[in-house]
Specification:
Layout: H1 4-27, H2 35-51, H3 64-67, H4 77-82, H5 94-117, H6 132-153, H7 159-169
The chain binds zinc ion.
Length: about 170
């Protein structure tokens, strides 16, 4: 199983190849990638690689992706306790969603607590509604970063399906 560092290097290498390819094909006039689309893709890809790695299922211990959160790393400990390593967290479709859902829940709790403790505090507003033009590069960047991790782990796209099929047969 590759370490966090190796996963990061694989993702960075894949990103470089993609970026070069996108630049080349845009120059050649084959398609148009706007700077905003490229930025959204890049941000989502970086977040997926460094902050929302599937290996956060190990966050009850020491893991690279938890370290990237710095002082906030402890927020992922419950996630690591709930999700077994390379279980649901490492499935292709639902796995990446579990981390987004967890992050959303934690954000709501933290914001709620801050509002309660500091009633006068101004919170940054969530930009909405999100345009699909922005959403597609975000989803693509995030999922690609996750799938590269799963490919490097040798996890197949039917990982979760096979597990539940086996359970159903029992
Ligand atoms: Zn992994």
């Amino acid at each position: 199983m590759p370490s966090g560092r190796v996963h990061n290097l694989i993702n960075i290498a894949a990103y470089s190849v993609l970026a070069a390819g996108a630049l080349y094909t845009t120059r050649a006039g084959l398609w148009v990638v706007t700077p905003t689309q490229a930025l959204n893709f890049t941000l989502a890809f970086a977040a997926g690689t460094f902050l929302l790695s599937p290996d956060l299922d190990l966050a009850e211990g020491r893991v690279d992706s938890k370290r990237h959160w710095g002082l906030l790393g402890f927020l992922w400990v419950p996630y690591g306790m709930v999700f077994s390593h390379r279980g649901l967290s490492h499935t292709w479709v639902v796995g990446p969603l579990t981390r987004l859902a967890y992050l959303a829940i934690v954000t709501v709790i933290v914001v709620g607590l801050l509002r309660y403790l500091l009633p006068g505090l101004e919170m940054p507003a969530i930009p909405q509604p999100l345009d699909t033009k922005f959403l597609i590069p975000l989803v693509a960047g995030y999922y690609l970063s996750q799938w590269l991790h799963l490919i490097a782990d040798g996890v197949r796209p039917d990982h979760g399906l096979r597990r539940s099929a086996r359970k159903r047969r029992r």
